[in-house]
């Protein structure tokens, strides 16, 4: 989001004012400045390294160690320089930097307050590691809760996410990694107060840095995967302008079906890839056939019906796609065996292909094509339900209907209405009969 809405800017300003309020006691309380400055410098350096590794937030252990060692206002200060100096990515950069600094300062301040209230300061100072676990656990919960509360508010305001969805799952997803960071931060704090001092505390970061580096390589690999898929989809969109955006929407619909069926996150991602790449074989089909306004001859239809096989050949060597490759090959098969390219029926059709078939037909009906105009979502769902059991798997149709009913469907227009040619009847009456 390059342009941040006015209400989100007001929200950022409000959180920044809260952060300033958290820092004000620095002028009136005794602050161990040397420790605060050392931790702030370590966090700032860590954020710069993390940016090079493509993994933000890796140095939470330093922030949490500050919350376990320092007064709340000094602990909040540790986060500010690193957040303000870290790469911001999209514009407006300074608004994003201020948001990140304010969010972390408020969260660390709350963490330190909870830790002190639970008696954690004394346990850490005495080197009582078992006794320090309970206060540290409460503090980590506070840190996670504040971060997710603020993130959810920003999502609701800046990205206009529905309020009921803005916070859903944020706390649960972030708790486990933050708990690991909290344990590392606690070990740093206990060693810091030991006779070995800060140098020993810094050694705690070494094994974590190795694991972060490995995780960063995983992120780099994922980014390469995404770039590969994006390049293929862009090539299809350029070749067949009428279906621009179709691939991404089929990926989204496939993901909605997979979630409704209760599939795990890894498989949901694979099915998203399957939906995005299902028509990549159109790169092997003559452009004139894809853009033809009139009816297709039997020979032209046979050429177009080769696109699943072309697509499968193109992606068969991409190992990370997994079962998505089967969906690319079989997404035009029908439950009654009347589909193509191999006329598979029933359970012979891979589950991933049955998911993508429903998503593909749904988006084809709700989008403008060179041979048909978009139908209302309710009509498209009705057509799918009529063909459930013959052309489409009823489970997939029901899952899509439930997901659309719960979250809605707002497809982008894939062709300019004013420029679209007059609609002609589809080649077949079946909702899946599209190019």
From TrEMBL:
One of its GO terms (molecular function) is hydrolase activity. Residues 416-435 are annotated as: Disordered. Residues 221-416 form the HD-GYP domain. Residues 243-365 form the HD domain. The chain crosses the membrane at residues 6-26, 61-86, 98-118, 138-158, 170-192, 198-216. Keywords: Hydrolase, Membrane, Transmembrane, Transmembrane helix. SUPFAM superfamilies: HD-domain/PDEase-like. It holds the Pfam family HD_5. NCBIfam families: HDIG. This is Metal-dependent phosphohydrolase.
């Amino acid at each position: 989001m390059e342009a941040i809405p006015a209400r989100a800017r007001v929200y950022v300003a409000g959180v920044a004012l809260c952060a300033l309020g958290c820092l004000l006691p620095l002028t009136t309380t005794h602050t161990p400045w040397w420790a605060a400055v050392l931790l702030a410098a370590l966090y700032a350096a860590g954020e710069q390294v993390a940016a090079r590794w493509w993994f933000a937030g890796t140095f939470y252990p330093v922030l949490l160690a500050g919350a376990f060692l320092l007064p709340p206002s000094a602990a909040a200060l540790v986060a500010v320089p690193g957040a303000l100096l870290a790469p911001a990515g999209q514009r407006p950069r300074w608004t994003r930097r201020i948001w990140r600094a304010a969010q972390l300062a408020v969260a660390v301040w709350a963490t330190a307050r909870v830790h002190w209230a639970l008696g954690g300061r004394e346990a850490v100072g005495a080197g009582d590691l078992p006794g320090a676990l309970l206060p540290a656990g409460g503090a980590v919960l506070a840190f996670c809760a504040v971060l997710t509360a603020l993130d959810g508010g920003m999502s609701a305001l800046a990205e206009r996410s529905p309020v009921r969805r803005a916070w859903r799952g944020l706390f649960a997803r972030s708790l486990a990694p933050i708990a690991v960071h909290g344990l590392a931060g606690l070990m740093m704090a206990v060693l810091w107060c030991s006779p070995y001092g800060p140098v020993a505390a810094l050694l705690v970061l070494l094994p974590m840095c190795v694991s972060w580096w490995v995780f960063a390589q995983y992120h780099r690999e994922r980014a390469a995967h995404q770039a590969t898929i994006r390049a293929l989809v862009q090539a299809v969109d350029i070749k067949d302008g009428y279906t621009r955006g179709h691939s991404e929407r089929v990926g989204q619909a496939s993901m909605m079906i997979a979630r409704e069926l209760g599939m795990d996150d890894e498989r949901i991602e694979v099915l998203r890839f399957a939906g995005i790449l299902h028509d990549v074989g159109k790169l092997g089909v003559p452009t004139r056939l894809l853009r033809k306004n009139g009816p297709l001859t039997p020979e032209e239809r046979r050429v177009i019906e080769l696109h699943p096989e072309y697509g499968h050949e193109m992606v068969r060597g991409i190992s990370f796609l997994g079962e998505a490759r089967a969906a690319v090959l079989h997404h035009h098969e029908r439950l009654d065996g009347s589909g193509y390219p191999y006329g598979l029926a029933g359970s012979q059709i891979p589950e991933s292909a049955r998911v993508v078939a429903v998503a593909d037909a749904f988006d084809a009906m709700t989008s403008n094509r060179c041979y048909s105009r978009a139908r209302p979502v309710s009509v498209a769902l009705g057509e799918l339900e009529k063909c459930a059991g013959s052309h489409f798997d009823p489970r997939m149709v029901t899952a899509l209907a439930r997901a659309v009913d719960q979250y809605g469907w707002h497809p982008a227009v894939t062709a300019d209405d004013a420029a679209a040619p007059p609609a002609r009847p589809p080649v077949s009456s079946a909702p899946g009969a599209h190019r």
